[in-house]
Amino acid sequence: MTRKELQKIEEKSKSLIQRLCDTSPRSPRELCYNQGSSKCYCKGGLADCSGKLHVPNISYAPRFKPNIKCLILAHNNIRGLTDSFFANVSQFVAIDLSSNKLQTISSQTFRRFTDLKYLILNDNVLGLKNLYPVFNYPPSLRLDIVGLDLPALPVNYFDNCSVIHTSQIYMDSNYMPVLDLNVFAKLDKLEYLSVTFSNIGKVISAPLCNLKVLYLDNNTISAFPETCQNAININNSNFDSKSACANSEKRGYSFSDERTALFPRLTQLYLGHNEIVSLPQKDQFCLSKVVILNLQTNNISEISEGAFTSLRSLKALHLDRMNNGITKIGSSAFNIPALTSLYLSRNRIQFASKDVSTKMLQGCTKVHVLAIDHNSLNGMTDDMFEEFLNYTPSLKYIFMSSTEMQIIPVTAFSRLQKLEKLFIYVNAITEIPPGAFDNMLSLRYLYMDENHISTLKENAFSPETRLRLQAINLSKNPYLCDCDLLWFRSWALEAGPKQFMDFNYYLCSNMPNTSVQSYSLSKQACLFSRQAYILFTVCLSILFVFFLAFAVLYRYRWDIRLLMYERRASRRIATDAPGGFRYDLLWFTFVATIEYQMVYSTHNFSCLYQNKWRLQTCIHQRDFIAGGFIIDNIVEAMNASRRILVVVSSRFSQSNWCNFELQIIQSHIITHDLPSLLVIVLDNIEPRDMRAPMLALYNTTCCLEWPTETRGINTFWKRLEKSLVTVLDNRLHDTSVMVVDDRPLGSLRDAS
């Protein structure tokens, strides 16, 4: 037995002793016996002669005044009780002999106590044989034999005893693998039996007609005990169930019925913390007087339709903390008109599952307490919530914490006009809809702490609702402390910790180490609503993206044009020449320049190329086809020329079209594996004034510089001529024939 369970028994024992012994908190505690080292203290009608652990105080029962009704002799190492142990006293109604290592009891020990009501023999080493004398003169009210390691009682254990009037027996923490209730059949006054923590694996039922409370918690029972007489065989052949329970007919039980109740007066049945796998069939549930049924922490996983219908007096049903969870609940499973409290907590129930009926509470019109916390409401729609709670108009307390709830079912909750306390903390709720609790006129306590609420609109709680709530807990939510939350801050400061629970745990998620009650904002910051700021931010973001895209497109507009043209040109060429690329070479040199005056000069290019070297040149101003695209003319001219000559100048570097033309030329040379460019530089150009195409040209190509002095002109022409001759030697091997004015290109050397 756990310390907690032991404390419960001791508290019940202490309460009973106080009632029997007329002890009240105001009664003085005084020394009433002092003999050597033995001392007793009296308070009211109670004499406490108990020793301390391992330190005995007294070894006999001293004489006391007549008003002393109760005696405590615990922890005194009393090994045996003789016939004369209580020779000095006879007026006691309660005696506590617990924790004495008591081994033997004389048959006449308690003979002189004519009014003994309560006897405590807990935590001793009495066996069944040595315990037997107690039942010769048993207490009339209660007997505690807890922690004696008693084995299972034989069926005939009480057969030779005189009439036993004891109404309550506590025999917890013993060792009884099988509990045969036939043992207690002769105890016709027995109303309360507790056999917890006794390793009971099987219960053999028997008619106990006056039994009202049966505690069988914390055992290993695997099957629900039989409660109907037709389902068992009465082991005690000498017991007449009809005569023993004759008075039951007056209370509505007819033993001519095949389904006679074995416990016709049982009102409380505790079977928690066992290993029960399933519930009895509806026609095998003969517990029509039971008010409390505790089945928590068992192995029950399915509750069939109308499973508890026959328990018409049941008010409290505990089905929480099942070891394997509950996977299936049928319609009208809890159709119990008298039911007021239903506990289904910590069962891992998937309420949105098709195996869990939303009509399970049908008929539960009187339920005041509903505990479904630590299950899963994830996936429940408003309609499902509405149907689920539609049958419980009398609800006063509902526990829905830790259920993965994401929405507040406003319609379903608004019908709960008697609801006083709502527990929906530790969930995934992100917002409180407007007026969510305004129609719940009886709601006084609201617990919504530890959700995902970041903001609260002012219409979430009407002024009437704020006044009606006596306590509210909205702490430990990730509040966004902005203008929209200022009203909530004012409410919290005005109401204070008297209304707001966990007052110090309302913190701002966007302001470290700042509470909701202490954050502040300027008036200017709150001129516009949060939605307006969001819209403004979105618009600015869109404008910024458009501006950035425009800047990128403008920056690389020539590159984009080039890519688009090359894509279009490739498709056109593929269509025109499906067998491959074939060009008709009309010119020897395509000249790209902006200095057309120089090109046309008879003393320069025109003169040398056509008159002296007899080579055809293609020049923009002269040879481009009117009406065509400039880009098309450039590409067609390059395709029809053997060499490309670029005349670079400051004006060329500053021209967008010239740089674009240079990009096309470079791409054309790389794509078609043509000889490198011939570059003539007319003037000095700083690198900072060059764009990327020209800078690349300068870094990769040897250039001819136009001389600034007249004496260098001849040298320049010779270098240009040599470049042309070298190209012809390397590329044509003196075999290519391109007729220009009826002369082969191979004769260029002779012409020079």
TrEMBL record:
One MF term in the entry's GO annotations: transmembrane signaling receptor activity
Species, as recorded: Candidula unifasciata
Keyword annotations of the record: Glycoprotein, Leucine-rich repeat, Membrane, Receptor, Repeat, Signal, Transmembrane, Transmembrane helix
Homology family: Belongs to the Toll-like receptor family.
GO terms under biological process: immune response; toll-like receptor signaling pathway
Membrane topology: Single-pass type I membrane protein
Record-annotated membrane-spanning stretches: 532-554
Protein name: TIR domain-containing protein
Coiled-coil regions, chain positions: none
Domain of life: Eukaryota
Subcellular location: Membrane
Residues of the TIR domain: 588-724
GO terms for cellular component: plasma membrane
Signal peptide range in chain numbering: none
